[in-house]
Amino acid sequence: MADCDLCGVAIPTVCPVRVFAPKFEQSYPEGVWKGLCSGCLENAKKAYDEAIENKATGTFGKCDLCGADGQLQDVEINIPSFSKGYELERKKICMKCLEQSSDAYENKDELLGEHH
Questions:
Q1: What are the residues whose beta carbons fall under 8 Å from the beta carbon of 112, sequence distance 6 or more?
Q2: What is the mean pLDDT of residues 97-110?
Q3: Which range marks the domain in which residue 100 is found?
Q4: Which helix H or strand E contains 85, and what residues bound it?
Q5: What integer pLDDT is reported at residue 57 of this predicted model?
Q6: Which sign, positive or negative, has the C-alpha torsion 11, 17, 49, 64?
Q7: What is d(CA 37, CA 27) in angstroms, rounded to the nearest whole number?
Q8: How far apart are CA 34 and CA 39, in angstroms?
Q9: Which end of the chain is more exposed for a tag (fewer CB within 10 A), N or C?
Q10: E strand or H helix at 34, and its extent?
Q11: 53 — phi, psi (to 5°)?
Q12: How high is the pLDDT of residue 55?
């Protein structure tokens, strides 16, 4: 079992997304792997597409995925809840991470080993 790095849901397999965390820049110059569930991956892809289409500037802060300071985009994430089923929460993610998650979304079937 693995936990999604955005919503925390435990599922058998998560989709790997390579992010470049400044905290681990010296140790891992190629980036570190984060795991996202299919729902978070789809929401990140939607946010990336909207940001590219609208040329959104976002807000400044710290990315919830890699920890880098920069311009962030809002991504709506469904956090599992026992009382309500799920709660909608907005995570702030930088464009680099959104781009990497978009690439992972495009290659999701290949990365997870699923065949249709």
A1: 13, 15
A2: 88
A3: 2-112
A4: strand 85-94
A5: 74
A6: positive
A7: 26
A8: 15
A9: C
A10: strand 32-36
A11: -65, -45
A12: 77
Which pair of tokens denotes residue 20?
Answer: 């470049």
Write down the pLDDT at residue 112.
Answer: 59
Give me the phi and psi of 77, to 5 degrees please: -120, 135
Task: State the distance between the two ends of the chain, measured CA to CA, in whole angstroms.
Answer: 23
Number of residues assigned to the chain:
116
Query: What does the pLDDT average to over 61-89?
Result: 90
Confidence of residue 111 (pLDDT cuts 50, 70, 90): low
Task: Note whether 36 and 17 are within 8 A (CB).
Answer: yes
Burial class (CB in 10 A: 0-12, 13-18, 19+), 29: exposed
Residues 91 and 86: their CA atoms lie apart, in Å, by: 15
Task: Report the predicted TM-score, pTM, of the whole model to 2 decimal places.
Answer: 0.83
Q: What number of CA atoms fall less than 13 Å from residue 71's CA on the CB side?
A: 8
Give the number of domains in the chain.
Answer: 1
pLDDT of residue 113: 61
For residue 111, the SS3 value is: helix
User: In which band, very low, low, confident or very high, does the pLDDT at 116 lie, cut at 50, 70 and 90?
Assistant: very low
What pLDDT score does 86 carry? 84
